[in-house]
Write a structure and sequence with these properties.
By secondary structure, this protein is of the alpha/beta class. It has 21 helices and 22 strands.
Length: about 725
C-alpha cells in the first residue's frame, strides 16, 4: 500500500487453526499460533501444514496493528458519500425499533387493559418481560453476530421483532400478548449490540466518535415518532368491527409501531456485510469487493473503476473456524456445537488479561446507568401522581375557592378543581350547577348530599359514608367510591362513564332513567338495588354479593369475565403522550453536545462529568415538591443523561477487538436489560413506601458510575483492532 511499508509483511500468511484453543493476548487480540512465508505456500490446495512455525506475541501484536492501520487507510480511501448516508439511515431506523419496543407497551397499557383484562400484576409482568426478551436477545444475537455475521443477525432479529410485534396487536388474551411481546423483545435485542458494532466497522478513526453519536440521535427520533403515533391514534375513538372482533385505536397504534422494524428488515437486504468482519473471518475477496463497492458509490465511479489501494497482500488472514466438509446432519450438529462453544469462549475472553478491567467497569457502569435511566423514566408518571396526590390532600377546596359555609347548605354554580373537599366543612350540602374536576373527598360522613345538574370528572370518594345520596340530571366521568357506605341513594337521569364502587356497601338505592357505560360493582356488597327504565352497558356484578335487587324495563349488558380495572385516576392520554414528546425533545441538546465534543475531549472524561451532573440533577429532583418543576428537572436529566449513553455506545464499539466486539456489545446489552428490570421493579416497591428512597439511590448510583468511568482506557485516537 504505502511505499515505506515493511516489504516482509507482504510475505506473511496467517491461518487460524480451530483445533487449537482460541487465545487472546494482553491487548485483546487473537494470539495467532502459526506463520509461514508466502513463497513457501506452494503446496497442493494451499496446504500449509508442513510450513508452520510459531511466532511471538510481540510479532502478533505488530501484525495486528499493521492490519488495523491498513484497513483504516482502506476505509479512508472509500470516503464519505451516498453509501455513508444510506448506512446511517439503515442503522438509525434499526435503532428506532428498540425505542419503539419499550415505549409502545407503556403507551398502550391504559387503553389495552380493558380489552385484555390486564390486572396490575399482569401489567407489571408485561413491562418486565420485554426487558427479559431484550436481555436474552441482546446476548444471543450479539454473540451470534461474531459467528454468522452482523448483517445476517440484523435481518433475522429485526424481522422477528416486526412479526411478533405485529401479531401482538391482534390477540385477545393477556398471556398471549405477554408471550408475543417477549418474543418481539428477543428480536429487537440485537438492535443495540449489533448495530453499533456493524456501523463502527465502516467508520474511520477520524469520524467514528462523531458519527456514532449522530447514530445515537435516532434513539431520540424513535421516542418522538412513537409519541407522535400515540398522540395521533390512541385518543381517537376508533372501533372497526369484524364480526365479534373489534379493532380499536390501541391495536392500530401497535401496528404502526412495527414500521421501523419492517423498514429496517427490508433495507437490510440491500446492505453488505461488514468488510472488517469478513476480513477477520478470512474472506478477503468478499471484503475487498465490498470496499470497492463503497468506493464506487461514494465517489460516483463506474463499475470498471479500479480501487486505488492495492491491499490484496494485506488481506491474507483466515480466522474462519468452520470445519470444511459436506453438509451432512452430523457435521451440522458438530458445527452448531462449535458455534455455541465459540460464543461461550468469546464471552470468557472478555475477562482475559488486558480486557477484564474495562469489562468489569463497563458492567458496573451500564448496570447503574440502566437502573437509573429506566427506573426514573418509566416510573416518573407514578412519581408525579404521588406529588399530585400529596398536593391534593393538602389543598382544601374552601381555601381555593374562598367560599364560606352556607347557612342553608346550598352552593350554586361553584367550580371545584384539584382540591380536597372536606365532608365536615359543608354539613349536608346541596350542590346545584357545580362542577368537580379532580376532586378528592376522604374520611367523613354526609348525612345528606344532593347533586343537581352537576358535572363530576375524576372524583374520588374514599372512606365516606352517605345516609342520603341524591344525584339528578348530572354527568359523571371516572368517578370512584372506594370503601364507602351508601344508604338510600337515588340516581335519576344520570349519564355516567366509568363509575366504580370498590369494596363498598350499598343498601337500598335506585337507578332511574339513566344511561351508564362501564359500571363496576364487582367488589362491593349490593342489597335492594332497583334499576328502572335505564340502560347500563358493561355492568360488572358479583351475583354472590347481590341481594334482593331488581331491574324493571331496563337494558343491562353483563360482563362475562369481569376485569377489576382501576379507574381511580382520570386517564388523560394526550397529556401523557405530550409529556413523553417533551422528554424526547429534551434529548436534542445533549445529542448535539455529544456530536460537538466527542472528538475533542476524551470519551471517559465526558462520560464521567455527565454522570456526575446527572446524579446532581436527580438529587435536586428529590427536594422539589411540585409537579411542574419536577417535569422541568426530568427534562434536564434526560438532556444530560443522553450524553453518557451516546459516549457509552462509542466506547463499547472502540475498546474491544473485532473478534469479540459484538459479543461484548451483546453481553453489555444483557447487563443493560438486567439493570432496567431491577430498576423498574425496585422503583415499584419503593415508590409506594417513600418516593425519596429510589430517587436517592439513583443519585448515588450515577455518582459512583461517574467515578468508575475514569478507569476506562483512552482509545479515541486508535484504529479499530
Amino acid at each position: 500500500m504505502d511505499s515505506d511499508d515493511d516489504p516482509d509483511e507482504h510475505n506473511i500468511l496467517l491461518r487460524y487453526q480451530p483445533e487449537k484453543d482460541l487465545d487472546i493476548n494482553g491487548d485483546g487480540q487473537i494470539d495467532y499460533t502459526t506463520v509461514i512465508p508466502k513463497e513457501q505456500n506452494m503446496g497442493t490446495n494451499n496446504d500449509v501444514s508442513d510450513y508452520e512455525t510459531e511466532i511471538t506475541t510481540s510479532e502478533v501484536k505488530s501484525i495486528n496493528d499493521k492490519l488495523a492501520d491498513k484497513y483504516e487507510a482502506a476505509l479512508q480511501t472509500t470516503g464519505f458519500g451516498p453509501f455513508s448516508v444510506y448506512l446511517l439511515i439503515f442503522c438509525g431506523i434499526t435503532l428506532m425499533a428498540d425505542t419503539t419496543e419499550i415505549l409502545c407497551v407503556s403507551f398502550v397499557m391504559p387503553s389495552a387493559e380493558r380489552d385484555l383484562c390486564l390486572t396490575d400484576w399482569m401489567k407489571g409482568l408485561i413491562g418486565s418481560i420485554i426487558f427479559v426478551g431484550m436481555l436474552i436477545g441482546g446476548y444471543t444475537w450479539g454473540s451470534l453476530a461474531d459467528q454468522i455475521g452482523r448483517r445476517s443477525c440484523l435481518f433475522l432479529s429485526i424481522t422477528m421483532n416486526g412479526i411478533f410485534g405485529l401479531a401482538s396487536a391482534f390477540v385477545t388474551h393477556s398471556i398471549t400478548f405477554c408471550i408475543l411481546r417477549f418474543l418481539s423483545g428477543v428480536g429487537v435485542g440485537a438492535s443495540l449490540p449489533v448495530v453499533f458494532s456493524y456501523y463502527s466497522e465502516f467508520l474511520t478513526q477520524k469520524v467514528r466518535g462523531r458519527l456514532i453519536s449522530v447514530l445515537s440521535v435516532f434513539w431520540m427520533c424513535g421516542q418522538i415518532t412513537t409519541s407522535v403515533f400515540a398522540i395521533a391514534v390512541i385518543p381517537r375513538d376508533i372501533n372497526i368491527h369484524i364480526g365479534s372482533y373489534a379493532i380499536n385505536s390501541w391495536r392500530i397504534f401497535v401496528c404502526l409501531c412495527t414500521i421501523p422494524a419492517f423498514t429496517s428488515s427490508v433495507l437490510s437486504l440491500l446492505m453488505p456485510e461488514s468488510p472488517r468482519y469478513l476480513l477477520v473471518k478470512g474472506k478477503r475477496e468478499k471484503s475487498l469487493e465490498i470496499l470497492r463497492l463503497i468506493y464506487r458509490i461514494n465517489k460516483f465511479k463506474g463499475r470498471d473503476t479500479t480501487y486505488p489501494v492495492a491491499i490484496d497482500s494485506l488481506f491474507k488472514v483466515n480466522l474462519n473456524t468452520e470445519p470444511k466438509g459436506s453438509s451432512n446432519p452430523l457435521r451440522l450438529i458438530k458445527l452448531a456445537l462449535i458455534k455455541i462453544f465459540l460464543v461461550l469462549k468469546a464471552t470468557i475472553h472478555l475477562f482475559s488479561r488486558g480486557l477484564w478491567i474495562r469489562t468489569t467497569v463497563l458492567i458496573v457502569v451500564v448496570f447503574m446507568m440502566s437502573f437509573s435511566t429506566y427506573g426514573i423514566t418509566l416510573w416518573f408518571p407514578e412519581y408525579v401522581k404521588k406529588l399530585q396526590q400529596n398536593s391534593l390532600e393538602n389543598t382544601h377546596c374552601h381555601n381555593v375557592t374562598g367560599i364560606k359555609p352556607s347557612p342553608t347548605g346550598v352552593y350554586v354554580n361553584m367550580h371545584f378543581r384539584d382540591c380536597k373537599l372536606d365532608p365536615n366543612f359543608y354539613n349536608s350540602p346541596s350542590f346545584i350547577g357545580c362542577s368537580f374536576d379532580n376532586v378528592y373527598i376522604q374520611n367523613g360522613n354526609f348525612s345528606k348530599l344532593s347533586l343537581f345538574n352537576v358535572t363530576l370528572s375524576s372524583v374520588q370518594f374514599k372512606n365516606v359514608s352517605f345516609n342520603n345520596l341524591q344525584i339528578r340530571n348530572s354527568n359523571l366521568e371516572s368517578t370512584t367510591f372506594h370503601s364507602a357506605n351508601v344508604t338510600n341513594f337515588t340516581f335519576y337521569q344520570v349519564e355516567s362513564e366509568r363509575l366504580i364502587l370498590r369494596n363498598s356497601r350499598i343498601y337500598t338505592g335506585s337507578i332511574l332513567s339513566s344511561y351508564m357505560d362501564r359500571l363496576d360493582l364487582y367488589t362491593s356488597r349490593i342489597s335492594k338495588l332497583k334499576i328502572k327504565k335505564s340502560t347500563i352497558l358493561d355492568i360488572q356484578l358479583d351475583v354472590d354479593n347481590n341481594y334482593n335487587s331488581t331491574a324493571i324495563n331496563s337494558t343491562l349488558a353483563y360482563s362475562r369475565d369481569p376485569c377489576p380495572i382501576n379507574f381511580n385516576e382520570n386517564y388523560d392520554s394526550t397529556k401523557l403522550f405530550l409529556e413523553s414528546l417533551f422528554f424526547a425533545l429534551a434529548n436534542l441538546p445533549g445529542n448535539l453536545l455529544t456530536v460537538l465534543l466527542i472528538d475533542y475531549i476524551p470519551r471517559k472524561w465526558i462520560m464521567s462529568v455527565v454522570l456526575l451532573l446527572s446524579g446532581i440533577s436527580v438529587f435536586t429532583l428529590w427536594q422539589v415538591p411540585t409537579e411542574t418543576v419536577s417535569v422541568i428537572l426530568l427534562c434536564l436529566f434526560n438532556g444530560i443523561n443522553v450524553i453518557s449513553w451516546n459516549v457509552f455506545n462509542v466506547l463499547t464499539a472502540e475498546v474491544y477487538p473485532t473478534v469479540v466486539r459484538s459479543t461484548a456489545s451483546g453481553f453489555l446489552s444483557a447487563i443493560n436489560r438486567i439493570g432496567a428490570i431491577v430498576g423498574v421493579n425496585l422503583f415499584a416497591v419503593f415508590i409506594d413506601l417513600n418516593p425519596a428512597v429510589p430517587i436517592l439511590i439513583v443519585a448515588g448510583m450515577l455518582g459512583i458510575s461517574g467515578l468508575l468511568a475514569l478507569l476506562l482506557p483512552r482509545v479515541e485516537k486508535q484504529s479499530l483492532k
